[in-house]
Design goal:
Elements: H1 4-9, H2 25-45, H3 49-74, H4 79-94, H5 102-120, H6 130-141, H7 153-156, H8 161-167, H9 177-186, H10 200-205, H11 212-215, H12 217-229, H13 236-257, H14 266-271, H15 275-281, H16 293-305
Helix pairs in contact: 2-4, 2-12, 3-4, 3-5, 4-6, 5-6, 13-16
Amino acid sequence: MLNFELNKSCRKITLNPFRFAFWSLDTVSTVTIGLLLIQVFMLVITGSMASLVVLLCALAASVLSELIHRTVLVKDLYFHSWRISIIQGLLTGLLLPSTYNPVAVFFILIFAMSIFRWAFGEFAESWANIVAVCVIVLYFINSSCFPPSALTTSDLQTRNAALILIQSGAVTPIAADSAITEFLNRTIFKLVGISIPEGYVSLLWDNGSVIPAFRFNAITLISSLVLFSLDFIDFLIPALFLFVYTILIRFVSPLILGGIPMQGDIILALLTSGTLFSTLYILQWYGTTPINLWGKIFRWLCVHCSRNEPYFTLHPGN
């Protein structure tokens, strides 16, 4: 008896018979670089020259350390590694404050990244995130460059600490803040019977932090939609992380800070701490992300257990 279904499936011949279960590394890395360059472009149009200089030094150090690693240690030039080194350089530069000495950033990162690539493994084989470790090293070398909290403990004990931050002038309002806020209150928020004060739109668009990764949360959210919709990154880990993070901020942080019970400021925590940026680009780095479900849940638990502070706040200035 003839198998008509098999015959039907084999009837069509194409020039691209091979199918992939996932996007190629070239595609994922190229799109990631493109999304990170939007953050860099925002630094350009806002005139944040100090941040740009630090970022360019970090990028040059990452690419140069990759060249040293490939020519001296591995002795094998791998084409895809250049894209990865560019991503690591951009991420490191965006996570460093503009007040850090650019020359120190360049030389420290060349040494640190070269050592860490040898010690932790390359790309998907790495067991530690080189970007995160390098930022930690730079912090311990000169922690005074990293911004302190713009709010006191008494400010964090109030019901709406984000509103205090806005009213104190720490966040510079954008020109369209009033119009956008009025539109949202009149349309979307009116349906649920709430309204937001002026300043929250500016906090979402550009909170003015000296650390670029903390600033452009709206761009980060749009980038996350792109990466999730194209299935470039797994949705489970960031969803679990942000869900539990917001629950801890809402209910546990008031107990730690002595604030109003069950009134932790989620908006402040998400828009001034770099949590959105780190969740999107750092938490799911290749090699450090488990493949199976229980591994992902275990990683999520470890990340939350390792966080000592409920959240960090911004320090204004470019």
